[in-house]
TrEMBL record:
This is Alpha,alpha-trehalose-phosphate synthase. Homotetramer. NCBIfam families: HAD-SF-IIB, PRK14501.1, T6PP, trehalose_OtsA. It holds the Pfam family Trehalose_PPase. It comes from Microcosmobacter mediterraneus.
Length: 732
């Protein structure tokens, strides 16, 4: 039975060792809940680190721990304390975390940490590869494992892989500063579906893929050799019922009141006017804690009538306390709370109640249900589940959520009071508005928020992700339709060998050689000459290179060889070492078109004009891909209106627009060649849109092969120049 393998940095288990007693309890976090049904299904397995380093496990304890882990349908990746220091605390939390949250000043680019990150991702890959079987699906979670998808795909291309990033994906301008950016993107592109919380993260990722990897992106699909990778947003939800039901039980007093609740009640009962404002976060610099405290101070000064009336309850949960920035944040927070409490407190009122600890779930519910306002103001946050949990617990549909625009959650929680966390004014206005908001308005806002959260809960989130992953598989089938398989390759080779008279037509750029930034750099290499020479020496074989390149360049590269050459899309042919024009073409039009192309070059950095004898080409492969997309549309419109007299045509090639006489194309010249002899075997290879003319003109029995996995009239598709060379070698 096919299974789903979930992979995350940590296993969803808490393991504690006391003496010889081993305690293993399931984690209750959002991810663990979301995956519960996926994990429980069939023989689903969760792979991750147990939380105990290998140094702390002797072999006896290790087998006991592993047995418990296996029992919980999990499998452990063993990590040493060095791994944790360098991969987790180092690279994940001192490089990726600050960089992806736009804290460039905190980002360390430490080579040894990067090496550890690669090493540990490989350790995860090993365990996954030992676990995965045909037909399984792997779902990789979060920023600690960005390289894992490709490590799996390399070995098991047949396995479907999903990846979800829980933190923001930064804009290209931030991401480009990262020294190993290409490797990181390559790692992620091993997945068949890459998911983010919001559309903004999705578009930032696509923008980096376009600019750094220079890949074709069509809406939200990336073409990556023979694969299509889908990118989409899936805003993670919470276990709505768990929070809502806990709050109902709490409010109906089905459970005994906690000490904390009793204390809260004392204050609530003191005076109807007294209000609680709540914030809950891990103590992390992304959560905007110091700013929130300062903004609260400003609020009290702006609206002094709230003094002695409102309290800010701040629950900050200890996190990553061995990373220096977190230690600094802790002292800054302590100091700010101390100062403000010192400044405003009276004998009966302390403005900030500050808890630096983690509280049990029932206390969390006490806080959520007792607070009139939730003040969630991160400076950057992938999603923020606390905001959603607060809403879920408001069973009477009262209470107000103030939420930072910088949290992913803000995108789907429009009915909250959204603020810019850097604006003290926004804070003060929103707090005042929240504290004064009529119950009716609170209700109507809460109702809408709750409806959405209930519908799109964490289980739905996981389901939607899997549904899209399934669809990605179907997409894949369309792309790889016509992909040449080994059997077809053998058959082609057999036909070739048995043929009596052969015609071999080969396009050059993108077919025999890969693209270079500058077309003049895509020179033939020794290996290519050898292959072509061998073809030339085959009996009864006519080899012809057919290209849009100009005569001078081809003469320079192949002038001393015997093969036939066709250049300028079919304007010139060289047979028996003699160049003959196939067409007599006008060139007067060039002086009109060139200035137009020049204006496009001036306005589009990275583009240039190639002047050929009979055509003009505007190349844009090194330009900014988004700007190039706009400019190509513009240029096409301008040119089409100018060349409407049918004498000229505009060809859209691979990262090039070419204007040439309508009389010539590779198809016409292919037909002419075919008429010259009685061939019983025709092989045509090309990668570009202009090569489709050749495929069309080729006879029914011809073997036509498209290089690249895009729509084509050819019979087969193959991957790239390397694969072309392998095939040609096989024929000869
Ligand atoms: C990352 C992204 C994204 C907090 N204090 C206590 C406690 N919590 C629970 C909350 C909530 C969770 O921790 C915190 O989740 P967040 O989403 O707010 O934040 P991160 O930990 O930074 O998570 C974030 C998330 O991944 C999911 O994709 O939303 O943007 O940074 O569930 O309830 N739970 C208990 N005691 C506490 O004291 N029991």
């Amino acid at each position: 039975m096919n299974k789903t393998i979930i992979v995350s940095n940590r296993l969803p288990l808490q393991i504690s060792i006391e003496g010889d007693k081993l305690n293993v309890t399931p984690s209750v976090g959002g991810l663990a809940t979301g995956m519960k049904s996926v994990h429980a299904e069939g023989n689903g397995i969760w792979i991750g680190w147990s939380g105990i380093t290998s140094e702390d496990l002797d072999s006896d304890l290790k087998s006991k721990v592993n047995a418990k882990i296996e029992n919980a349908k999990c499998r452990a990746v063993e990590l040493s304390s060095d791994d944790i220091d360098d991969y987790y605390l180092g690279f994940s939390n001192r490089t990726l975390w600050p960089l992806f949250h736009y804290f460039l000043e905190y980002t360390e680019f430490e080579k040894s940490h990067w090496e550890a990150y690669k090493r540990v991702n490989k350790k995860f890959a090993e365990v996954v590869l030992n676990t995965v079987e045909e037909g399984d699906t792997v779902w990789v979670q979060d920023y600690q494992l960005l390289l894992l998808p490709q490590l799996i795909k390399d070995v098991r291309p047949d396995i479907t892989i999903g990846f979800f990033l829980h933190i923001p994906f930064p804009s290209y301008e931030i991401f480009r500063t990262f020294p190993w950016r290409e490797e990181l993107l390559t790692g992620m592109l091993g997945a068949d579906l890459v998911g983010f919380h919001t559309y903004d993260y999705e578009r930032h990722f696509l923008s980096s893929v376009k600019r750094i990897m220079r890949l074709e992106v069509n809406f939200n699909e990336i073409t990556y050799y023979d694969r299509i990778i889908k990118v989409d947003s899936f805003p993670m939800g919470i276990d709505y019922n768990k929070f809502h039901d806990a709050a109902l039980a709490h409010n109906n007093q089905n459970t005994e009141k906690s000490e904390l609740q009793k204390r809260l009640d004392t204050h609530i009962n003191e005076d109807n006017d007294k209000k609680f404002i709540l914030s809950i976060d891990r103590l992390d610099y992304t959560k905007g804690i110091p700013n929130r405290i300062r903004a609260f101070e400003n609020f009290l000064n702006t609206y002094p009538e709230y003094k002695e009336k409102v309290r800010l309850i701040m629950l900050t949960v200890p996190s990553r306390s061995n990373v220096p920035q977190y230690q600094k944040l802790k002292s800054e927070t302590d100091e700010l709370v101390g100062r403000i409490n010192g400044e405003f407190s009276t004998v009966s009122w302390t403005p900030i109640w500050y808890f630096y600890r983690s509280l049990p779930f029932n206390n969390l519910i006490d806080l959520y249900t007792s607070s009139d306002v939730a003040l969630i103001t991160p400076v950057r946050d992938g999603m923020n589940l606390v905001a959603k949990e607060y809403v879920a617990t408001r069973t009477n549909q009262d209470g107000v959520l103030i939420l930072s625009e910088m949290a992913g959650a803000a995108k789907e929680m429009n009915e909250a009071l959204l603020i810019n966390p850097n604006s003290f004014e926004d804070f003060a206005t929103a707090l005042n508005k929240a504290l004064k908001m009529p119950l009716e308005e609170q209700n109507s806002r809460m109702k809408i928020l709750q409806k959405r959260l209930k519908r799109y809960d964490v289980e739905k989130w996981a389901k939607e992700f899997f549904k899209t992953l399934d669809e990605t598989n179907q997409l894949q089938e369309v792309v790889i339709s016509k992909k040449m398989n080994d059997k077809e390759e053998d058959l082609i080779s057999e036909h070739y060998k048995n043929a009596k008279k052969r015609l071999v037509l080969l396009d050059y750029d993108g077919t025999l050689v890969g693209f270079k930034d500058n077309p003049q750099d895509a020179k033939p290499d020794e290996e290519l000459y050898t292959i072509l020479d061998k073809f030339e020496n085959q009996k009864n074989t006519k080899l012809c290179l057919i290209s849009g390149r100009d005569k001078a360049t081809f003469n320079n590269w192949f002038g001393f060889k015997d093969y036939d050459l066709i250049t300028d899309h079919g304007v010139w042919i060289r047979e028996n070492k003699k160049w003959i024009p196939l067409e007599i073409l006008k060139t007067e039009w060039m002086s009109n078109i060139k200035p137009i192309l020049e204006t496009f070059v001036d306005r589009t950095p990275g583009t240039f004009i190639e002047e050929k004898e009979y055509s003009l080409a505007w190349h844009y492969r090194t330009a900014d891909p988004e700007l190039a997309q706009i400019r190509t549309l513009e240029l096409n419109t301008v040119l089409t209106s100018m060349v409407s007299n049918n004498e000229l045509s505009v060809l859209q090639g691979n990262k090039v627009i070419e204007i040439k006489s309508s009389n010539v194309n590779k198809g016409r010249v292919t037909s002419q060649l075919l008429m010259k002899d009685n061939y019983d075997y025709v092989l045509v290879l090309g990668d570009d849109w202009t090569d489709e003319y050749m495929f069309e003109a080729a006879p029914e029995f011809a073997t036509t092969i498209k290089v690249g996995y895009v729509k084509t009239k050819a019979k087969y598709k193959i991957k790239g120049p390397q694969k072309v060379r392998e095939l040609l070698n096989k024929l000869i």
